[in-house]
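Job type: complex structure
Entries:
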Amino acid sequence: MGRLKQLAVDVAWTLVPFLVLGVLWEIVARSGIYPPKLFPSLVTVFDALLRLTVSGILWVNTQGTLLRLVLGFLLAAVIGVLLGIAMGRYRFVEDVFLPIVSIGYPIPGLAYAPLFVLWFGLGDLPAVLLVGIASSFSVIINTWKGVKAVKQIWIRAAESMGATDRQMFYKVILPASLPYIFTGMRLGLAQAWRILVAVEMLTAVSKGLGWMIFGAQEFLATDVMLVGIAMIGAIGLLLEKQVFKRLETYTVVRWGMMTA
Amino acid sequence: MSAGSSFSWTSFWRGTAGVVVTLIAWEIFARSGLFSQALSPPLEAIGTSLVQLTLDGSMIKNAASTLGRVLLGLSLACLIGIPLGILMARFRVWERFWMPLVSVLMPIPSLAWVPLFILWFGIGDVTMIVVVTYAATFPMIYNVWAGVRSVSPIWLRAASSMGAGERVLFWKVVIPGSMPYIITGVRLSFGRAWIAVIGGELLASPSWGLGRIIFDAKEFLNSSVMLAALLVIGALGLLFERVVFQAIERRTVARWGMIVGWKQ
């Protein structure tokens, strides 16, 4: 009984803030400070959500955005992990690439968007490339740090027990630097997610949540825009809480390298 | 730049070589005619644009309005985030009420709001500042909250057993104790705000701003101007990250011995 009561209290505490926010929103929406076209009531927004879900428009756009995110992120992960490991392992690669990476890192990837549109035209190619490049930097830097942070003692121990280069890499260096690599990927994915929406607006992709929001602006369809924003928030939350937490639980936490 | 390792001339020359090779590769690419030179301008054209824009004062004015927006948004984020974060960490009711809202609103990229904010607040500074503040506030709240919670209870007990009142406890223990997190929060917030302001300027095109230069230059196929603006954006970002925030860290938490100031 005590447990059930605790659960009920927890649920109530989670719901209350949203209820308060919803009521405030409704008051503003119905007060007429803004015309209803600009500040729709929640009923209208739910209506739009239903309409867009039933007609499949929401799903098609979400699919487009997710596909772009996955492609861009894979690009970043592959480039980032390979370059990061090379930089961590070989002094020469580190010396050559570190200054370039340090210069490129602080430029927001989004700023390249208009340039990429000129180079590659509108559409998916510049969007995926931009997201990939923007998120690769945190993967590179974290992988590099991770490989450098592998304990010298582990390497020597493996060496003295006769590990080959291959074994050394797969059994010692890679697992040891994995917590850092995951952190880099997590940061990279979050970064990719934050700019993807804007990239979609700038590169005029044919299907995507960013484009849905941007297109709805032309028709003053604020309800559609809010549905898009809510969807983006939901996916963002899911990416943050589910994808990488799971991956970490199955690998580095299980190996006892990190506590959850 | 390299973590901890001592300076060596070999590294320096290799690094320089890396940068030079990149520049040469760009130059070859630009002059190869693979893309027309209007799309991939040679270095000389970029340099000329940069000098020209700096001399006629427009680059400085644009950079100043972009920076002004970021700093204003960041200050607002501190004004909201620091008190809210502290209250959330100290009082259970505040935490229970605000935490769900923060965790739901934080993953929404501020740039997704831009089209809606344009409808609400018009094209201009209000929209930009709201976007920047939105981007910067959540990492701020989160870090301040984590920072205050991280203050070791032993310090609190030690201070109160030595007769510190609530006020003293707060200003002498809680605030300095959570400072490393707060500074990390400001840093993260700046990074978010910097991306948000550029994206916002590209989307909402206010009358001045570095993003606006890029946007305008695209209309006229002026890619040398775009690249010049990109360089300025990168340089300003680097300046804040490496110079300003590191100086703040050195003066405060590193001096108090709370983190090891390994970057000279």
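Summary: Residues 1-30 of chain A form one domain. Chain A touches chain B through 62 residues (CB under 8 Å).
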